[in-house]
Design brief:
The structure holds 2 protein chains of 2 kinds.
Chain A: H1 15-37, H2 43-48, H3 55-66, H4 69-82, H5 84-111, H6 116-120, H7 126-160, H8 165-216, H9 221-232, H10 250-266, H11 271-276, H12 283-314, H13 317-322, H14 330-379, H15 387-411, H16 418-441, H17 447-466, H18 493-510, H19 516-528
Chain B: H1 13-21, H2 23-56, H3 58-61, E1 64-66, E2 69-70, H4 71-111
Antiparallel strand pairs in B: 1-2
Classes of the chains: A mainly alpha, B mainly alpha.
Chain lengths: ~550, ~110
């Protein structure tokens, strides 16, 4: 959803205001993170914030994790330019939460400790399944991370007016270093507070702008739509009808279907979302977290519908399309049109904070998976001498991942990496979700099946993306001048998700392994919460 | 599973097996699956129907109902309504019908060792 960076900044934007509001956010969150670090001592503190957050707090943090810059700037921009088709994204992103609520969240909280691998490996052979779970966790987190960091580059040029390659790289590096400090010092507790503060700012800002826009049209949504249609000119009516973006050909329609499936099944397999369920004391609180998250995320997408059409009506698709950053500038331009440079500064700072917070959440997830699944259980075979060593490894990993994210973000700065987010969702939906569902609900499922569905789903998704028009052979492709694509769709979900379910099923039938005792233990644990990890007390 | 910082004696395998075949647990599993599986099929089908309509039935989705509000917008907003509604239904169901049973099985298991 994020377009190419351009050289000039947004007209009328005051970089000084933008930077000072963002700096205030950083100072406040750093103080909070430092306070949180005082009570971060054990592994459970570092990975899962001592499991001491309440359902509502965690729900707000989940919405903070989920509402990335791509979904804030991207969806508002897509609605402003493509109208109804932009709205379709948000519906997939929202309905997906029902999968998490009904099938995954509580059972995962009851069964595992820190990572997705805890649940997938519970009744399987530990080492191979944990290695597979960590591989797909790292893959999803890294694709997502890279997309966020590349987005940071676009935002820098857009909002701070920094056009030079060196200047943008420096800002990306600063953002990355602040994020590493959050994660190293504050652990999960600090990261969670950053998410909560950011989510509150983002939702409050969006709510205020929504009321402002609606107020201009006498709180008549139909009048707002009319305004958008009138401003767009002759073919303005298309903004209200589906098809402006995806209706151009049979392939693009199929692509949309594929995207829709990946969105709805991907959320409940995103490792950084799953890990958040471990930060609450009980499965009942995990349930409450999802309820809060669904409510807040749904509300936010309703706001973004108004903001998208508001940007189309007040700013106009033509101005947005010509602005640096194209569709991504819709929300900032609307803020400027409504409240001048101060509101623009606030919204810009919130967008930065969003990237910072989401990147921190991804980094702690990836580092936890490496330290807990790979280091403690694969390398040390689950006999690690002490938990402190594991947390030390997690901290080192977080610093390494942070450094990789900075380098990746600088390299991907001017690339079209929009497909990375859809790739992250497609891998989560293909590698993680089938394996989670099978291991929670299918008695016969075993190690071979789990390995087939994780590695199979991951491989099919990545291969199809590499040979898709997103990478080569189309106008918007990442590589220009070469064309080696043979898979027609940009999103692989339509093929890779059924393939992973099928592979998991075939793999299971190929092996006779079955641990009935562990199966019974897992089922009782997952449904009742008996023996589940409790909150730490301090 | 090893324990972390606090003492937590894990029930023995036979205790898990006994709990697994207890009448309460069997009823709990039947209730949970009897709710979440049909509801999941239902909302996924409803979502898929919506996506297919938006994808392939442009004419139908563009029919105006009142003012500038067309069928597509109403169906899209209904997806929000159904998501909020299913969430509320599930929470009510889980609080009333699942939690008491789960609590019973859990106390029996964790209490046994005291």
């Amino acid at each position: 959803m994020i377009r190419l960076a351009q050289d000039a900044g947004l007209e009328g934007s005051n970089p000084a205001i933008n930077i000072s509001i963002f700096a205030a956010f950083v100072v406040v969150t750093l103080v909070v993170v430092l306070r949180a670090s005082r009570t971060t001592k054990t592994a459970s503190d570092y990975y899962a914030a001592g499991r001491a957050f309440s359902g509502p707090q965690n729900g707000i943090a989940i919405s903070g994790d989920y509402l990335s810059a791509a979904s804030f700037l991207g969806i508002v921009g897509a609605i402003a330019l493509y109208g109804y088709d932009g709205f379709l994204y948000s519906i997939g992103f929202l309905v997906a939460w029902l999968v998490a609520l009904l099938l995954v969240a509580e059972l995962l909280r009851n069964t595992g400790k820190f990572t997705m691998g805890d649940v997938l490996a519970f009744r399987m052979r530990q080492r191979p399944v944990r290695a597979a779970a960590a591989t797909s966790t790292l893959a999803v987190s890294f694709f997502y991370l890279l997309a966020q960091m590349a987005g940071a580059g676009v935002l820098v040029s857009l909002l701070l007016g920094i056009g030079s390659a060196v200047g943008q790289s420096v800002v990306i590096a600063i953002v990355g270093v602040i994020m590493i400090v959050y994660v190293l010092v504050g652990g999960m507790k600090g990261t969670t507070w950053v998410q909560i503060i950011k989510a509150a700012l983002l939702i409050a800002g969006a709510a205020a702008m929504t009321l402002w826009v609606l107020g201009r049209y006498g709180f008549d949504f139909s009048a707002l739509l009319q305004g958008a249609v009138d401003k767009a000119g002759a073919d303005g009516q298309r903004l209200l009808e589906p098809g402006a973006k995806y209706g151009t050909s049979e392939i693009s329609k199929l692509d949309f279907l594929s995207l829709g499936v990946a969105l709805v099944l991907g959320t409940a397999g995103l490792p950084h979302v799953l890990m958040r369920f471990y930060t609450v004391p009980t499965s009942r609180e995990a349930r409450r977290s999802v309820v809060w998250a669904i409510f807040l995320i749904g509300l936010f997408y309703l706001f973004s519908l108004v903001l998208g059409y508001g940007a189309a009506a007040i700013v106009g698709p033509e101005t947005i399309g010509d602005a640096p950053g194209a569709s991504n500038s819709a929300a900032p331009l609307l803020a400027q049109a409504l409240g001048g440079p101060v509101l623009l500064g606030f919204i810009s700072a919130v967008a930065f904070a969003t990237i910072l917070a989401v990147v921190a959440g991804l980094t702690i997830t990836a580092s936890a998976s490496f330290a807990h699944d790979i280091y403690a259980n694969v390398i040390k075979k689950g006999e690690a001498e002490d938990k402190q060593a594991e947390v030390r490894v997690a901290r080192i990993t977080a610093a390494v991942i942070g450094a990789l994210a900075i380098i990746g973000g600088i390299l991907a700065r001017n690339q079209n990496v929009a497909f990375l987010v859809s790739l992250a969702f497609a891998v989560a939906a293909s590698a993680n979700l089938p394996t989670l569902l099978y291991s929670l609900f299918w008695r016969r499922f075993n190690t071979t099946g789990a390995l087939c569905s994780i590695y199979g789903g991951l491989a099919v998704a990545v291969v199809l993306i590499v040979f898709s028009p997103a990478v080569s052979g189309s106008e918007t492709a990442m590589l220009s001048g070469v064309d080696f694509h043979w898979f027609p769709l940009e999103n692989p979900g339509l093929v890779s998700i059924p393939a992973s379910f099928l592979l998991g099923w075939i793999g299971t039938l190929l092996s006779s392994e079955h641990n009935e005792a562990k199966y019974m233990e897992m089922e009782v644990r997952s449904l009742t919460g008996a023996g589940a990890e409790k909150a730490s007390t301090h | 599973m090893t324990t972390d910082e606090f003492e937590q004696r894990a029930p023995a395998p036979e205790q898990w097996a006994r709990a697994h075949s207890s009448a309460e647990f069997v009823a709990l599993r039947r209730r949970l699956r009897g709710f979440v599986f049909p509801v999941a099929v239902l909302f996924l089908a409803w979502y898929l129907l919506y996506v297919l309509l938006a994808d392939y039935a442009h004419g139908f989705m563009s029919i105006r109902l009142f003012g500038n509000i067309n069928v597509g917008l109403v169906l899209g907003l209904l997806q929000f309504v159904s998501t909020f509604g299913i969430t509320a239904l599930y929470v009510r169901f889980a609080n009333r019908r699942l939690d008491p049973l789960a609590g019973k099985v859990r106390t029996e298991l964790e209490g046994e060792e005291e």
